[in-house]
Design brief:
Helix content is about 55%, strand content about 10%. By secondary structure, the protein is mainly alpha-helical. It has 2 domains: about 1-50, no CATH class; about 55-154, no CATH class. It has a 3-stranded antiparallel β-sheet, with no helix packed on it.
């Protein structure tokens, strides 16, 4: 039976290969990695840890999610967008059971409520459904395609 066993004597990355309790290489196992390998491993681990925290933040905050998506378009949410986002987050938390959005044309209602909110909603409520409704079929299909593409890219 082949086994790889981590040993912490001296070098933090000594690996001994054993078979039935005997060293195959004879005597003390030899180090198989150097300090630059440890440095690379640690930097990769920190990068993955940071990426994990970023993903957690994106799942917990609609503002973080919207900012991340819009950063690819060189856009950032304005103050009235942040207010809309806070109301959408309250809806997702169940603090609001109905929300009517009345904003002037061109104020990004559709971008936030119909495109950015549904994918984030699914992270909060994975077993739920969203119905996309619009005054025309083409607009509803366009929103749903953009939502689908966001989910695929995420």
């Amino acid at each position: 039976m082949w086994m790889a066993r981590w040993q912490s004597r001296g070098s933090p990355c000594r690996i001994a290969i054993q078979s039935a309790g005997k060293h195959l290489l004879g005597g003390e196992p030899k180090p198989i990695c150097s300090s630059w390998m440890i440095t690379n491993f640690l930097s990769d681990w920190l990068r993955l840890e940071d990426e994990s925290l970023t993903r957690l933040n994106l799942r917990n905050s609609l503002l973080a999610w919207a900012s991340e998506v819009l950063a690819g378009l060189n856009q950032t949410p304005a103050s009235h967008h942040e207010y809309l986002i806070s109301e959408l987050e309250a809806l997702a938390r169940g603090q609001t059971d109905r929300l009517m959005i009345l904003m002037p044309p061109g104020s990004a209602k559709s971008t936030y409520a119909s495109i950015l909110f549904p994918p984030w909603w699914f992270t909060q409520h994975p077993g739920s459904s969203v119905i996309a409704v619009s005054h025309t079929l083409a607009l509803a299909e366009s929103f749903s395609r953009r939502v689908r593409n966001l989910i695929r890219l995420s």
